[in-house]
Amino acid sequence: MPKADTARFLQDLHELRQIGAYRTGVHRPTYSPQDMESRRWLMRKMEEVGLEASIDGIGNVYGRHKGPGPHLLAGSHIETQNEAGWLDGALGVVGALAMARAGLPVDVCAFADEEGHFEGGFLGSRSIIGDLSEEEIDRSRNRSDGTKLRDALAAAGLAGLPRMQLEPGRHKGFFEMHIEQGTQLERAGLRLGIVSGIVAIWQWRLLVEGQQDHAGGTTMAERRDAGLTAVRLLAAIDAEFPRFCGERSTWTTGRITLDPGAPSIIPGRADVLFQFRDVSLAKLEEMEAGLRRLVQESNRRERCETTLTAVGKATPALCDPGMMRALQAAAEALAPGAWQVMPSGAGHDAQYIAQLMPSAMLFVPSIGGISHHWAEDTKEEDLALGVETLVEAGARFLAGSN
Questions:
Q1: pTM over the 0.85 mark
Q2: Structural domain includes residue 148
Q3: Residues 64 and 154 in one domain
Q4: What is the DSSP secondary-structure string of 247-287?
């Protein structure tokens, strides 16, 4: 059975965290100088472990195994959220390098912009499966400063490079190791999570139309306050969703924008971005029906009208049973009784790669559940156990002994 070199694995992780270091975390937004430096670092590491390294026109870094198959694909992403953690994404890429170093026939990939700095999100994994059009690239802009994606690619030195796609039939399956980004493992005293499925995220826009007016001259009886209508609707959603949501369903109001947004003006418009997540398509549909009922009730009761628009409706991705069995067998061999099967509450590149091949994910605990923050961390012994499990699971899956 191939063995992971845990010392080299941890050394690589700590070396990578120095690129864009911020406090105890990392700041490497997509296509920034720090991000591109990390991609060049990764290409050198790929060459060191015997892979043929390349970068494509969307920023995917790919290390191709030079020997015979059957091959695995493994990886994640290495850009980060702003002023965020050192393990989110990087763990899966460095873990994939460790699989190659252990002698497994694996192609390693770091997908671009899993963190969604640019409109559309998951640019790299969507591009590599053929799900990102040139027209979408033309339209996409940075969510923070409005920079056009085309301009960002040119500044990063990627303009004009071809975008690669996965070779049909080359890979037996895709593995992605990741931090949990939650507290389930830590609270249960467990060290590994075998992911059963990755949630779909359904995004919505709630546009509330009222009447902009003077905050002092307009009586309370006369007002059509879009802000108040939005707040009351969101409170109703939060009160009603527990009646029909799933055990691990979540819902989030990510942004509320009031127009014109001045303290002495009654807002005439409220623009709300809202999402919910679940691994069950049936449950997602039930939550959508509930949301539509609540908007309808709001429009019956309120003076301001709300329009509901779907922004994005992804499909949940279930993990491959055979790959899960390989992970479970490896976890039980290395950490008996210290693992569990669990869903992923976050989106990952694996949910897109799963559209082309069997896919599976392995979680290690997050200290305090912290992620998307520079304090994100995991015990080194858990990181080491994770990569040992990943390597053994990869070997078991290739051998069919799971």
A1: yes
A2: yes
A3: yes
A4: TT-EEEEEEEEEES--TTEE-SEEEEEEEEEES-HHHHHHH
Q: By three-state DSSP, how is residue 209 classified?
A: strand
How many domains is the chain built from?
2
**CATH number of the domain that residue 349 is part of:** 3.40.630.10
Tokens of 237: 């959603």
Q: What is the pLDDT of residues 138-173, one digit of tens each?
A: 999 999 999 999 999 999 999 999 999 999 999 999
Residue carrying structure tokens 């080359």: 170
- Whether 129 and 274 map to the same domain: the answer is no
Q: Tell me, yes or no, whether 171 and 49 share the same domain.
A: yes
* Amino acid letter, residue 152: A
Query: Does the annotation place 71 within a ligand binding site?
Result: no
Residue 88 is labelled as binding a ligand: yes
1 belongs to a structural domain: no
Q: Give tens-digit pLDDT for 377-395.
A: 999 999 999 999 999 999 9
User: Do residue 52 and residue 18 come from a single domain?
Assistant: yes
Sign of the Cα pseudo-torsion (388, 78, 59, 41, in order): negative
Residues 159 and 69 in one domain: yes
DSSP structural state of residue 164: P
User: Is the same domain home to 63 and 115?
Assistant: yes
Is residue 154 a part of any domain in this protein?
yes
Distance CA 65, CA 4 (A): 17
- Alpha carbon distance 208, 302 (integer Å): 10
Two tokens, residue 57: 């026109």
Task: Please say which residue of 313, 331, 349 terminates a domain.
Answer: 313
The parent domain of residue 190 ranges over 6-199+316-399
Element (H, E) at 384: helix 380-399
pLDDT at 69: 87
Q: Per the structure block, which two tokens stand in for 252?
A: 């989030």
Query: pLDDT tens for residues 6-49?
Result: 999 999 999 999 999 999 999 999 999 999 999 999 999 999 99
Residue 372 annotated as part of some ligand binding site: yes
The tokens of 358 are what?
Answer: 């069997």
**pLDDT at site 401:** 55
CATH number where 208 lies: 3.30.70.360
Domain shared by 69 and 161, yes or no: yes
Query: Of 359, 8, 11, 38, which Cα lies nearest the Cα of 195?
Result: 359
Rounded Cα gap, residues 212 and 223, in angstroms: 9
Q: Does residue 209 have a known ligand-binding role? A: no
What is the per-residue pLDDT for 121? 87
